[in-house]
Design goal:
The complex is a heterodimer of chains A (285) and B (294). Chain A is mainly alpha-helical. Helices cover 73% and strands 3% of the residues of chain A. Chain A contains 11 helices and 2 strands. In chain A, strand 1 and strand 2 form a beta hairpin. The termini of chain A are far apart. The C terminus of chain A is likely disordered. Chain B is an all-alpha fold and 294 residues long. Helix content of chain B is 75%, strand content 1%. The relative contact order of chain B is 0.19. The model of chain B has no long low-confidence stretch (mean pLDDT 85). The chains are: A mainly alpha (285), B mainly alpha (294). Chains A and B meet through helix 4, helix 9 and helix 11 of A and helix 4, helix 10 and helix 12 of B.
Chain lengths: 285, 294
């Protein structure tokens, strides 16, 4: 039982980690809480449904297309709604509200296009599962875990070795100095939103293999991203990823004893405990 | 013809009641957000706590209305303390996260505490408000009641804002370090402001519960909180008339859409689209809101 829950925790944790990345990187470089981030996750899931079920594209291609279209949509939102506030003093809460309004806009649009009924991709495929030493793991779960691990290795490479990655880290450290030494800060902002929503879209595409879709799924995704980012120290990329895994495991071990309907409550309780013990860990002034 | 007139009158009364309830909510949110600078994306939670407390008191205890509304609003006020007290040190944007999280927690509690709230089934059969032997059943009477409560809320808020207490709140909004430097207890002022704000949100909740006679957790989703915040931002942060105008306009649009016969599926979604676009446009083009001055 314990091992099974641990594996389940790792799998949901990898989804949380992918989602938390975008939330934390946008705060790191652009200094605002992107409350529309959950929408990227939802768009990723719905676009996977659209490409795979409606258009009949094969699944891996559908998921890749879904992630890319999520990135495109979020970049358009950024240009339209977030860009005008850049360089504005005290833009933090205004952008938080504005991004919440964007999330509020995406929800009815999805409902009008796809309907409010629950949609499922799972039904379109044959469930395959493996039994390894008393643990049941489905093929989809293996896909989720391996894709996320590959993405994380690529991310680590990107941030350590490439000049774009280094520019992003420099901007997260201090955007004014980054600007002064000739880093194209606007490009870094676009990269942050783009890469963040690409991964959130991928997370949504991956989770659509496991759960059903409904137009309110963005809330819980955003919540997990917030909690994971805060656990890891907001703006800290490896921290947010570890936070995601920690959250996934803690939640799954939690529902061992507590009704699963309280899952969101458990993650928030974890966050509250963290906040009270060590306020806003890793926050730079 | 007479039927048509009646329909219009009933619709108008219904709109007035809903507008009044939301105006109480947005005026109360404006007190903490507009004057004290404490952002809250969980006003829907205070609203819900007030509604649930009121409904449960009248269903299970059957207290007289005056006592019921006082107790329910006080419970809601204390919920305000619980969220604000540990988060007082946070900056505005962090505050938005903390209150967002709190809103979700309250929603989870409402939908999962089956023995008290009956979870997603909701609480049906909330009795009408009765003061002495008069029952507020007709729309006319209820609209009157709501307007009276709105009047009380506005008079309280307007006079408190002009009082020395309100001046300190506004000073905290501008520069809380300076205020603490002249010896004011900033934390205490913020706590009192949140208590008052959540208290009046609770009153709005009680009024809603008795008007609908049925409540369930979906009436108090995080979206509801954002709706109220939107009314304040749209109407004008830190003004008395702004939030009332914001509530009136943002309530009227969707009700009108439904009245002209748009199916409620489209009306609900169209309302949300219009609403979020209005908020974005106001933030982009006129940050002080419709009636705000700066």
């Amino acid at each position: 039982m314990f091992l099974q829950l641990l594996i389940n925790g790792l799998i949901s944790g990898s989804i949380y980690a992918l989602t938390a990345f975008g939330f934390t990187i946008v705060f790191g470089t652009m200094r605002f809480f992107n409350l529309a981030h959950g929408s990227a996750y939802m768009i990723g899931a719905y676009m996977t449904y659209f490409f795979f079920v409606k258009l009949g594209v094969n699944l891996p291609v559908a998921m890749a297309l879904a992630s890319l279209s999520t990135m495109a949509v979020m970049l358009v939102f950024d240009q339209m709604f977030f860009k005008p506030f850049r360089g504005d003093e005290n833009h933090g809460w205004v952008l938080a509200i504005c991004s919440f309004a964007v999330a509020f806009l995406v929800e009815p649009v999805i409902s009008l296009i796809f309907g409010t009924d629950i949609l499922s991709i799972r039904q379109a495929q044959v469930p395959v599962s493996y039994h390894i030493g008393g643990i049941i793991i489905t093929r989809n779960q293996i896909i989720i875990l391996s894709v996320s691990i590959v993405i994380m290795i690529l991310l680590a490479f990107f941030f350590r070795k490439t000049s774009f990655g280094k520019a992003m880290r420099a901007t997260a450290d201090d955007s004014e100095i980054a600007d002064a030494i000739g880093i194209n800060v606007e490009l870094v902002f676009l990269l942050s939103i783009g890469l963040g929503s690409l991964l959130a879209g991928t997370a949504g595409a991956l989770i659509s293999l496991e759960i059903d879709l409904d137009p309110t799924m963005s809330h819980s995704a955003l919540l997990k991203a917030i909690v994971a980012s805060i656990l890891g120290g907001i703006g800290n990329i490896p921290g947010a990823m570890l936070g995601g895994f920690f959250l996934g495991i803690a939640e799954n071990l939690g529902i061992w004893k507590i009704d699963s309907a309280w899952k969101d409550g458990i993650s928030l309780a974890i966050m509250m405990i963290f906040v009270l013990l060590k306020p806003w860990i890793g926050r730079r002034s | 013809m007479a039927v048509g007139v009646n329909k219009v009158i009933n619709f108008a009364l219904h709109v007035i009641i809903v507008m009044g309830i939301y105006a109480i909510l947005s005026v109360s949110l404006n007190f903490m957000f507009g004057y004290a600078g404490i952002i809250s994306i969980c006003h829907g939670a205070f609203f819900g706590i007030g509604a649930y407390a009121g409904a449960l008191i009248s269903l299970k205890l059957g207290l007289p209305f005056a006592l019921e509304i006082l107790v329910a609003s006080t419970i809601s006020g204390f919920a305000g303390l619980i969220i604000t007290a540990p988060t007082l040190r946070l900056e505005e944007d962090y505050m938005s996260l903390a209150t967002y999280a709190f809103g979700v927690i309250i929603f989870t509690v409402m939908s999962n505490w089956h023995s008290l709230t009956r979870g997603p089934l909701g609480l049906p059969g909330i009795p009408p408000i009765q003061i002495f032997s008069f029952q507020f059943v007709s729309l006319w009477a209820y609209a009157g009641l709501v307007v009276v409560f709105l009047g009380i809320t506005v008079v309280c808020m307007a006079s408190w804002v002009r009082s020395p207490f309100g001046k300190v709140l506004m000073a905290i909004r501008e520069d809380h370090v300076a205020v603490s430097a002249i010896g004011k207890n900033v934390a205490m002022f913020k706590i009192i402001a949140t208590f008052i704000s959540a208290f009046f949100a609770g009153i709005a909740g009680v009024l809603l519960a008795h008007y609908l006679t049925f409540i369930d957790p979906t009436s108090f989703l995080i979206n509801e909180s954002f709706l109220v915040l939107g009314m304040v931002i749209f109407g004008g942060i830190g003004t008395i008339t702004g939030p009332i105008a914001g509530a009136a306009i943002l309530v009227f649009i969707p009700e009108a859409l439904r009245f002209v016969g748009l199916p409620s599926f489209y009306a609900a979604h169209l309302r949300q689209i219009i609403f979020s676009l209005l908020i974005i446009v106001v933030l982009l083009k006129r940050k002080q809101g419709l009636l705000g001055k700066r």
